[in-house]
Design brief:
By secondary structure, the protein is mainly α. About 30% of the residues lie in helices and about 5% in strands. It contains 2 helices and 2 strands. A two-stranded antiparallel ribbon has the order 1-2. The protein is flat. It starts with a strand and ends in an 8-residue tail after the last helix.
Length: about 70
């Protein structure tokens, strides 16, 4: 059973889509057509160091996490 964000139960679900005989090849071909490079490093982030992330993004992430302030040393 699945629920909406409002908590309403969903009983009817759509049937799963029909898969191609080789769905992995279909996915890979579609990715290549969209310019997505399929290699072992494809899931790595484009940044390497914390300093590569701008402060606005760090601040927004911290705000979204709503972490408590660090205790004073």
């Amino acid at each position: 059973m699945f629920f909406t964000p409002a908590g309403k139960a969903l009983f009817d679900v759509a049937p799963p889509p029909e898969l191609a005989p080789d769905p992995v090849q279909v996915l890979m071909r579609g990715s290549r057509e969209r310019g997505i490079i399929l290699d072992p490093w494809g899931t790595e982030p484009g940044w390497r160091w914390d300093r590569d992330i701008s402060w606005d993004i760090k601040a927004a992430a911290l705000e979204a996490l709503d972490l408590p302030d660090e205790p004073a040393a």
